[in-house]
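Quick entry, no commentary yet.
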Amino acid sequence: MHVTKRDGTREPYDADRINKAIERAAAGLPDQIAITTQVASELAITLFDGITTEQLDEAAIGVAVQNVKDDPQFDMVAARLLRKVIYKRVLGGYDTELELALLHQARFPGYIRDAIEEGLLDVRLQELFDLDALAAALDHTRDDLLKYIGTVTMRNRYMITDRHRKSLEVPQYFWMRVAMGLALNEADPTGTALKFYEKISTLDYLPAGSTLVNAGTSYPQLSNCFVMQMEDDIEHIAKSVRDVMWLTKGTGGIGLSVTKLRSEGSPIRSNNTTSTGPIPFMHTIDSTLRAVSRGGKKFGALAFYMENWHLDFHQFLDLRQNSGDPYRRTRTANTAVWISDEFMKRVAADQDWYLFDPAETPDLVELVGSEFSARYAEYVALAEAGKMRTFRKMRAREQYKQILVTLQTTSHPWLTWKDTINNRALNTNTGTIHLSNLCTEICLPQDRDNISVCNLASVNLPQHLVDGKIDWDRMEQSVRLAVRQLDNLVDITLSSVPESEFANQENRAVGLGVMGFTDITERLGLAYESEEAYDLIDQIVEFVSYHAIDASADLARERGSYNNFAGSGWSQGKVPFDTIAEVEADRGVPVTVNRVTRLDWDTLRDKVKGGIRNATLMAVAPTASIGLVAGTTPGFDPQFSQIFSRNTSSGKFLEVNTNLVKDLQALGIWDEVKDQLLAAQGDLSKVDGVPQHLVDVYKTSFQLDPHAFLEVAARAQKWIDQAISRNIYLEDRDVDKMMELYAFAWEKGVKTTYYLHMKPRHTAEQSTVRVNKTENINRTGSASGRAAGGAASGGARKGFGGARKGFGGAKAAAAPAADAPVAEAQAEEAPSTTAAAAPASASRGFGGFGGAKKPAPATTEIPAVTDGEAVATTPEEKAPAAAPASVLSSIAAQAFATAPQEQPEVPPVTLPEPAPEPAAQQLSTSAAAPSSAALLDVVETVASGDTEMIGGVACPVDPMERLQCESCQ
């Protein structure tokens, strides 16, 4: 057998050479020999005569990847094999680690000079820096901090290539280029770049996505978030379209408020016609996003915001629907609703809600809190007196429910709270905050002359956890350097829109966040929904906030305060914690959040009175992409599953929770339970023999009480001057519970929420777990017998997907055996199985929404089908929860109550089941060496219409962009 080299020549296949390469990739791992043997033997069966060196490399990586499900150590092997490919293409061949280190140093200056000559890098990188000193600091061993998915993400998204798409960077060149690009304005650029490099190359903190893409390049557009408002005149509408185009070209994510645009049918006096309303203009901008792709890699990213008193708000709710007039829909842009305290209080009191034309009520956009409420009441009185040209009246609860039903069916609009944001901000002395950004974590004022800008970075919490304790000194260093780096960015970044350039310089707004919270709770053995975890996030974010503010105050003494400092909350000696009381006083409703403090805030209050460098300091972004690079969980999000296949724009990746594997290995049970875990879709509670404390620690997103997500956010929000990109995960589709949950967020003082992820109703059958279906069928009788048994034990399961009655009652059938097919196991289980979630949700917030469960929103469902049985997928009917003792408990228990609907009967469907071909045979019969994606497919589930996940389930409505908010990563 021969291998075809890159120059087209052929040479005999050298198995010994390949085996040594694999052995080096497994160096230092506990089972080096076993891993090497397994990868080498599985690789051998994929080979064919004439295989190219590229195919050989790809096949070796793929073989390592497909074994990650059995042992996460294979991820390290795959990452090292991939990096070897990168090293060879950029640096050339090498045989030893010493040679690799010398190549890194020797070729770094040439890489900088060549990239500058090609017009790819900033000429100042050669003029201002001591390239030899920087080269000497390069440490390629830090590459081992990168997982396989992190290496691929870095290569595909962030590392630069030449005009022919040839790779120019290895990971450490990339980190150093970013560090240099953020030190250009320093008095000692080389020394500062070395400090930045030390932190980001060890993954202590990471700049956000746009910064990583463009830092040090010839076009350093480094800002991440742009927040703008569209004015109600045709000239500004046209300018807004132009601005969106330029900001999108520069890879920025955009928030755009359309509340000021007059409603459909509103008179236009200049030409004696009527307005078409905001929807057609939003569709135009949506098309613009698709026309101007972000960095040439994917569509633009933008979120429209509208206040829910706008007369066309019902049309706004339909923007993301799949049906209807395509010219009145947005297929790329997202939507978010800007909600006032007045609306929330009218919902609580079951009062009417009035919708107005902004042309008649132009001042409502600028008013917040009690001032908004007073003026709104005046407009209501005018409407009732017949003195308004047009208005619409409806029950506040009716609209609230419409919002949440639309959120459940389309994942939009996201809920954000106008008055909480404005009253808890310290930077509103320059005007009203009219919206947030694409990912709902930015809170900055804007107007016709200011497109607000924010610049992001995130502290990687697990890197600061040493021997089971947080290294607070290391974290303080990370925070202070990150703030300095972000402040530098304001002066270095370029913008093609003058209004954003102006706002950036005037306010110098930055948003330092954190990521990896779930990662550290698992390492510390804490359950996400425990009081200990809440106290931990409280303490961490307080610490980060304190030192970020202190660092900015120090920078003000070195470089001066931001231009709009006078009159700000900072100038009055306020810190974010102080705004909680102000919100309570204005809304007249308590903010139910823990008020413990740990640090000397009085001293810091006195210090910030003297000046602060940045209008804002903290914002927690989703960190979906940089979280992959850092190898940790994104933001505050829980684990999606313990084992699953992640589908991103960079490819498919098999992920296994290494924290869980380590804990199970310490108990000596990983090898015996790993197949059960895979069969259970990553649900540890369904695996036999696992201690309960581990089951509690390793609950996944849909198993947790959703109130826990908001408690974590509320604790963190105490200390954050901007907001948090807070995803919500719900297993239960009960709209009444959703109404209570989002009201709970408002009561807690949470400023914004982001995506709502609903658990899909169907799952896919596993193709990788050895199961004895005949044995399982015999154990429970037959397919039809299981259906009958389910009807007897859990309340009637009628026909194809019929109603399963009795909330909180017994499961429909006994739990299936551990080796049962997953789709069968899930079919026999009630959709809500987390015992801890029920009492918590029954005692909080707007709980009185109760009543009989309403019909689910109209969506098309494809039933899961296994072994000739069509599986029931309709959630259980829910009994009304008891009304809580809350300030909002006056809500009627039977609001929106309707009779439950039963599903029609459909005859069972039987599908033939082909015998699975062993993985080895599937690979060996390939006509060519498989790609890593093809190899990964061998270990994936049989894909269903809802998801491609192995363990757990994906978001059923939106594509992969849901967790890929590139502008904030």
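second:
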Amino acid sequence: MAPAGGAAETVVVDRRGQIPWLAVSPEQKPIASRSAAELRTQRNAVVELLRVAPVADEVARRFEDAGHELYLVGGSVRDALLGRLGTDLDFTTDARPEQVVELLTGWADAIWDTGIEFGTVGATRRGSTLEITTFRADSYDRVTRNPEVVFGDHIDDDLLRRDFTVNAMAVRLPERRFVDPHDGMTALLERRLDTPATPEESFADDPLRMLRAARFVAQLGFRPAQRVVAAMREMADQLDRITAERVQAELSKLLRGPHARQGVELMVDTGLADRVLPEVPAMRLEIDEHHQHKDVYQHSLVVLDQAIELEANDPDQDGPDLVLRMAALLHDIGKPATRKFEAGGGVSFHHHEVVGAKMTRRRLRELRYSKEFVTQVSQLVYLHLRFHGYGTGQWTDSAVRRYVTDAGDLLPRLHKLVRADCTTRNRRKAAALQRSYDELEERIVRIAAEEDLQRVRPDLDGNEIMRLLGLPPGPLVGRAWSHLKELRLERGPLSRDEAEAELREWARSEGLEPPPAP
């Protein structure tokens, strides 16, 4: 393969899936001397490219007939080589955006130009989504977030400005010529992240690329080159130039990755987490030799790992659960603020779940997450410790009802979070905790079957309360409703006569004189 900055390596993939190598320099290896891993990776690309060939070839022919170049590029080529190419395809071309729109009109099922000022035109065709971007040769002032968009004329210039060498490969269509001027294939085989230009240049152009490096570690299990890690440490503060919305998008992708823990560790080790989730590195508490306790940071990483494992073992789970994973990572962030050294060598973290829920809500709002997401994650953080009052089954049925009602739709996630939160190395203690939670889940199922816990409501609704007490709509009706709900949680379902009697008794305690019973 050509060294970084050298002549691009070219490979033609023919219609039968064969890969004859076209030597462009005497240094290139013939196919017979290539490693099994290399050939396997290339075969992945053949299979993937042949799968999307009809759509890719059709659009390429339109560009070729108009005298323009078209390349499958970036993440699409990387994913094809890894055998995981989806239906979202990225292309680059020498055609200008207006020409791209013209070439797609009449062929694409739909076209959108929301990114046209940055040179990108989107389209769909028979279930595939295409993004076609004009060659870029951008310049950055390295103060603001956005580049001065400059269109280029050569594929090599476009590939040089990309974030990582594994994303700086292209396949020219329709002839399927592989272009790899920065040796991205070797980096891919070594699962190594490096930059086409120097990391300092790349990250100065777009600091979000540092967070993207952590995201690729989490998604693909790659390892960043030492020079990349060094630049991330040196330039972490540059991430402050990036909008919260862009940071949030990368963080969410990172946490959805199968190797999310490694991505978080890279963020913490390089100082990126101090700019994005400072509460996470703050969990690395100094351990006092006389007051031993778990390393809260390491414990939280294990909980994240175990939550991901529980997801994988759940047949009803449909993809990564960002709410659960964020809660697993943040569930103990209230501990540093609540740590107290006790006499005799103990350490307490009283009410850390309450403090942690407030901290979680504040941080996720700053990252511009949706109101629903913020509420769900912070509620899981608030509830994660509740189970530890269960002991060996001392809860009454009333306490079980409250547990279910407080969790609401989050109950399946709370089950996973509580189980993931068991990280003790004492096998006997771990087994006892799991047995206790098994018993609690069995009780929840039993009581739910008897009482329909998913729809806990007072035995009388608001209209009935107003009719029985002769009240107009207002706060008193709400207070009466809340009282009946508390009774429902405490005692289970009431008969109609019992509910009405309890309502009248409540009204008298409030100084009201309800109308006579009919």
